[in-house]
Amino acid sequence: MPLKHLFFVLALISVASAGHAQIGFPRPDLPAVRDLPGRVGGQIGDLTEDMTGRAEALVADRLDQVRGLVRAHPDVLERTPQGDLAVRGEIVAWAPSPEVVASAESQGFTVLRRTRMDDLDAEVVVLSPPKGQSARAALKALQKIDPQGVYDYNHIYLGSGGASGDSDGPIRGAGGGRVGLIDSGVDAGHPVFRGVVIVQKGFGGGAAPDAHGTATAALMMARGDGSGQSATGAALYVADVYAGRPTGGSTEAIIGALSWLSREKVAVINISLVGPSNGPLKAATAAMVRRGHLLVAAVGNDGPAAKPLYPAAFDGVIGVTGVDARRKVLIEAGRGPQVDFAAPGADIVSAGVGGKRVGVRGTSYAAPLVAGKLSRRMSVPDTAAAARAVAELTAQAQDLGRAGRDPVYGAGLVEGDIFNKKQ
Question: Could you tell me whether strands 85-94 and 150-155 are parallel, antiparallel, or unpaired per DSSP bridges?
Answer without folding.
Answer: antiparallel
